[in-house]
């Protein structure tokens, strides 16, 4: 016979990434949406996604509604890209 869960025990945490976690971008990085088909990248519109789906929406679910501007595919992922620092050969 199974016992009901003890309300004093902490519930297991849901480790699914949510949109509220994307609101804070670490200094020196930028959030990008990357197409898995053609590798096109564009800034991830986090503010618009939060406004449309809410802060508790899983990131994967929100990305299902995005399409690549170049090829039109909906296979998009969120990436955290480091910015090049001043003094780097790529920085101009």
CATH-assigned fold name of the domain at 29-82: Rubrerythrin, domain 2
Gross geometry: extended
Q: What would you call the structural class?
A: alpha+beta
The CATH C-level name of the domain at 29-82 is Mainly Beta
**Mean pLDDT over the full residue set:** 84
How large is the share of residues in beta strands?
15-25%
Q: Total number of β-strand segments?
A: 3
Q: Name the strands of the widest sheet in spatial order.
A: 2-1-3
Poorly predicted runs: none
| Total helical elements | 2
CATH architecture of the domain at 29-82: Single Sheet
Order of helices and strands: EEHHE
Largest sheet: 3 strands, antiparallel
**Rounded to an integer, what's the Rg over CA atoms?**
18 Å
What percentage of residues falls in helices of 4 or more residues? 10-25%
C-alpha termini separation: 69 Å
Structure summary:
Helix content is about 15%, strand content about 20%. It is an alpha+beta fold. Strands 2-1-3 form a 3-stranded antiparallel sheet.
Characterise this structure.
With 92 residues, the protein is an alpha+beta fold. The chain has a domain at 29-82: Rubrerythrin, domain 2, CATH 2.20.28. The chain has two helices and three strands. The protein has helices at residues 46-53, 59-63; strands at 29-35, 41-43, 76-82. The chain has a three-stranded antiparallel sheet with strand order 2-1-3. The longest helix has 8 residues, at 46-53. The chain is extended, with a radius of gyration of 18 Å.
């Amino acid at each position: 016979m199974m016992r009901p869960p003890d309300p004093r025990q902490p519930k297991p945490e849901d480790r699914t990434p949510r949109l509220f976690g994307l609101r804070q971008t670490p200094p020196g990085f930028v959030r990008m949406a990357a197409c898995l088909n053609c590798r096109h990248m564009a800034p991830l519109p986090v503010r618009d996604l939060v406004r449309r789906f809410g802060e508790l929406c899983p990131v994967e679910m929100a990305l299902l509604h995005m399409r690549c501007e170049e090829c039109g595919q909906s296979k998009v992922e969120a990436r955290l890209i480091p910015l090049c620092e001043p003094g780097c050969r790529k920085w101009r």
